[in-house]
Amino acid sequence: MDLQLAGKRVLVTGASKGIGLAVVQAFVAEGASVVAAARRNTAELKETGAHFIPVDLSTPDGPRELVEAALALDPRIDVLVNNAGGGEVTDDVFSDPLSGDDETWAKVFDLNLGNVVRTTRAALPALIEAKGAVVNIGSVSADLPHTSPLPYSSAKAAVKAFTRGLAEAVGRAGVRVNAVSPGATRTNLMLDPQGYMAAVAANLGMDHDVLLGALPEQSGMLTGNLIDPGEIARVVLLLASPTMPSAVGSTWSVHGGAVKSA
Ligand SMILES: NC(=O)c1ccc[n+]([C@@H]2O[C@H](COP(=O)([O-])OP(=O)(O)OC[C@H]3O[C@@H](n4cnc5c(N)ncnc54)[C@H](OP(=O)(O)O)[C@@H]3O)[C@@H](O)[C@H]2O)c1
After folding, report:
1. What is the mean pLDDT of the segment spanning 220-244?
2. Contacts (Cβ under 8 Å, ≥6 apart) of 3
């Protein structure tokens, strides 16, 4: 299937590992020209040949500076993939019924929502010029808010609302906005011994590997496996493809059956 992405100029955030890296690899394989952003580059990202721009997207100015740097290389953006998100786990996530104090909520919202809004705002003139596409990476936590820290679930629910609202605001200008909502996916967020799922395991007094093994079944997935990041990347490419002109304002969930509602 020709997705007509060859030669397209794509900006991917959170591109150094996990889902973002898989998205970069998939666009490069289609012949797209990719600008990749994260705080630190990785050997795997270097291998893709994507142009790397270092940036902290949780800061108020980082998103605008990223887009300015990308436009200085080439004034065209056909596709924006807002993937950077997640964040560090603080101790109060597990002890506080609100999963953290004001500072925690602000930090999680700055990274998971603020960065999406700010990067989109900065890239919008170029996206309108290109009649391009935005794909935001949400989370099934938006639909299953009790399964993640509340600031994260709430920020991802806001990303879902932002996706639908922005699609309406810019659809007639020719920009398509959609989101992909992954369930538990095999990335550092799950696998890193210092990461989120390791912290959950420590809090439960469980071995990290045992928790990861039990997770698909425990979270209601029907596949028995964590999701491969490449699966999420394939949906991103389809939603970004000009062969899908009617994909507008949708959130496509990939969760192995974990979300039980229709
Ligand atoms: N894995 C899952 O199960 C899952 C499920 C649902 C949704 N998601 C969502 O999918 C997206 C990708 O997650 P992932 O699992 O692939 O996580 P990951 O493996 O931890 O990758 C996160 C990426 O974002 C970058 N990043 C993090 N903070 C950043 C910042 N402040 N500024 C710029 N870049 C930053 C990281 O690079 P640096 O650290 O070098 O900056 C990295 O490239 C996130 O939005 C996450 O919420 C993941």
Report:
1. 98
2. 30, 237, 238, 241, 243
Largest separation between any pair of C-alpha atoms in the chain: 53
Taking the C-alpha atoms of residue 219 and residue 221, their distance in angstroms, rounded to an integer, is 6
Instruction: Tell me if 98 sits within 8 A of 106, measured CB to CB.
Output: no
DSSP secondary structure code for residue 49 in this structure: T
Over the chain, what is the mean pLDDT?
96
7: exposed, middle or buried (Cβ count in 10 Å: 0-12, 13-18, 19+) = exposed
Instruction: From 50, 1, 49, select the one nearest 237 (Cα to Cα).
Output: 1
Q: Is the CB of 85 under 6 A from ligand 1?
A: yes
Residue pair 83/35 in contact (Cβ under 8 Å)? The answer is no
Structural domains of the chain ordered from first start: 9-183+229-253 (3.40.50.720), 186-226 (no CATH)
Q: What pLDDT band is residue 89 in, cutting at 50, 70 and 90?
A: confident
Ligand 1 centroid from CA 160, angstroms: 17
Beta-carbon neighbour count of residue 194 at 10 Å? 9
In tens, the pLDDT along 3-51 reads: 999 999 999 999 999 999 999 999 999 999 999 999 999 999 999 999 9
pTM of the shown model? 0.98
The residue whose C-alpha atom lies closest to atom 19 belonging to ligand 1 is: 18
Contact 14, 35 (CB under 8 A): no
Supply the residues annotated as catalytic: 152
- Does position 112 have pLDDT exceeding 90, yes or no? yes
Testing ligand 1's pocket by substitution, the residue of 67, 83, 200, 226 carrying the most ligand atoms inside 8 A of its CB is 83
